[in-house]
Amino acid sequence: xxxxxxxxxxxxxxxxxxxxxxxxxxxxxxxxxxxxxxxxxxxxxxxxxxxxxxxxxxxxxxxxxxxxxxxxxxxxxxxxxxxxxxxxxxxxxxxxxxxxxxxxxxxxxxxxxxxxxxxxxxxxxxxxxxxxxxxxxxxxxxxxxxxxxxxxxxxxxxxxxxxxxxxxxxxxxxxxxxxxxxxxxxxxxxxxxxxxxxxxxxxxxxxxxxxxxxxxxxxxx
Length: 221
Ligand code: GRF
Known about the structure:
By secondary structure, the protein is an alpha/beta fold. The chain folds into two domains: about 1-105, Formyl transferase, N-terminal domain (Rossmann fold, 3-Layer(aba) Sandwich), CATH 3.40.50; about 110-220, Formyl transferase, N-terminal domain (Rossmann fold, 3-Layer(aba) Sandwich), CATH 3.40.50. About 35% of the residues lie in helices and about 25% in strands. It is built from seven helices and nine strands; from the N terminus they run E-H-E-H-E-H-E-H-E-H-E-E-H-E-E-H. It has helices spanning about 15-25, 45-55, 70-80, 100-105, 125-130, 165-190, 210-215; strands at about 5-10, 35-40, 60, 85-90, 110-115, 135-145, 155-160, 195, 200-205. The longest helix is centred in the last third of the chain and has 24 residues, at about 165-190. It is globular, with a radius of gyration of 17 Å. It starts with 5 loop residues before the first strand and ends in a 5-residue tail after the last helix. The model has no long low-confidence stretch (mean pLDDT about 95). The structure holds 5-O-phosphono-beta-D-ribofuranosylamine.
């Protein structure tokens, strides 16, 4: 009998290219998951359009209609539960989650961040990496805790920062790797291979190529 695939809820505020990478990986059968719902806080987020094109339920909640962050999050969590979501994937979701949300989906929320955490958390991080003069940046998939981009790290990919780079060229180089590591991280969770030990995320079957790539922290283009 085939194991049931992992039920995802994707939260996105914008163009949704990471959402698309997840959809593509599912359709290519390299990811054993299904997207139950895409939820946005922005009515015209292109991510919603991408969801609809693939027959995925697309829902918007307007933050201004709710008195507090937690009230908004209660509605979102209610929607996720209604769709039987097991893993919440933040993909360009521009809101901080309340402690309530984090508690409700403890160790079941992940995020993709376009820098090598713990360097450059927050926003405009490609600009920050350039301004700092870093020679490498990259992207990080991590579990979400109550801090800002502080949860345990699942996978990272490293990209060089070139002399001619501006924010856009660096962001584009990083984004290609985001699209590789985000579905890969979800697949590790779907396979039940990850274990959180304090700050460290350990991966079972450490002899596998997957794990080696994580150890080296570099994914070949
Ligand atoms: C990505 O760079 C992601 O790392 C960050 O927000 C951006 C979202 O892009 N959290 P997209 O909407 O997935 O195209």
